Amino acid sequence: MRLAWRLQRWEMAFVVIGGLGLAAFALWQAFDMRSMLTGCGTASAAPACEFVYPFQESHGSFFLLMQLIALTPFLAGLLLGVPIVGREIEHRTALIAWPLAGSRSRWLALRITPALIIGAAVLVVLAMAAELMAQAYLPKSELGFLHHGSRGVPLVMRGVIALLLAVVVGALVGRVLPALLVGIALCIAVSVGLNVVRERWVPSAELTVADEPGGLTNPEITEVRYRTPGGEIIGAQEGEIIVSAAYEAAAQAGEPEQDPAALPQPAYFGITSARYPEVVVRESLALGAAAFGLAGVATLLVRRRRPE
């Protein structure tokens, strides 16, 4: 651990200070929102007490902070992972470090473990703080899929996969700055890919009225279709054409507005918030398996790489 700190003290310090700073701000936000609601029912009640979504005006920084938290695991993983092998090759210190270690696999494990422990510890604290802030922001609603990837276990797993991916990129490229640029592109691809496949971890189904957008739950909406008055499900484009044509015909004939019950109505398909834990478990298992695979690839690359 001391050796890892000496070699990567600036990266580790940045991750620790930045991550814990975001966590502290999130906890302060959560405390401030909860304290506003303690006066509800009294003469000094805050305006937030009257709304289901009480803090949209008073705590607008919530969404920006959640976006920053979502970026943190990828940034931390890149900063901690790329220099582990890339800097050794770039500075030619691998010529000394690898023979002295006796085993390159052992050397890599000893270098990755401290970075993984520090990064995971910071992300665990940040994930818990983000969870508390989200609960305080929507005290009357289920969190469900709200800001998935910015809180809880998914945040930590993204950091783990980003770190090991960065180690692999550093070993392949052998230069810190180019490896960081490649790593950024790959992390963006991973983030987008996780958002795309999230709806496939469990099968989607038609949502009930309670789970539709605007309610007290936050489901994962995967598709919007239309239901005809006869109960038939049609595509979104077809439904929109029928509704638009009906309103245009009524306007041209000078008739009153159409009765919504006589027109196709939106039908939402997706994953209910009650299945959120199942999605988290499946995603975490998949990312864990990918992390082990990346660790194996990194080990193979280091064992076969010329120290230059």
Report on this structure.
It is a single chain. The protein is built from eight helices and four strands, in the order ααααααβββαβα. With 308 residues, the chain is an alpha+beta fold. The protein has a four-stranded antiparallel sheet, with helices on one face. Strand 2 and strand 3 form a beta hairpin. The longest helix has 36 residues. It starts with a helix and ends with a helix. The model has no long low-confidence stretch (mean pLDDT 85).
Low-pLDDT stretches = none
Order of helices and strands: HHHHHHEEEHEH
Q: How large is the radius of gyration? A: 25 Å
Please give the order of strands in the largest beta sheet: 1-4-2-3
**Total number of helices:** 8
Based on helices, strands and strand pairing, what is the structural class? alpha+beta
Binned, the helix content reads 55-70%
Quick tags:
4-stranded antiparallel beta sheet, 8 helices, alpha+beta, elongated
Short description:
The chain is of the alpha+beta class. Helices cover about 65% and strands about 5% of the residues.
Give the arrangement of secondary structure elements.
Elements: H1 2-37, H2 61-90, H3 94-101, H4 104-137, H5 152-173, H6 176-197, E1 205-206, E2 220-227, E3 233-234, H7 236-253, E4 265-271, H8 276-304
Antiparallel strand pairs: 1-4, 2-3, 2-4
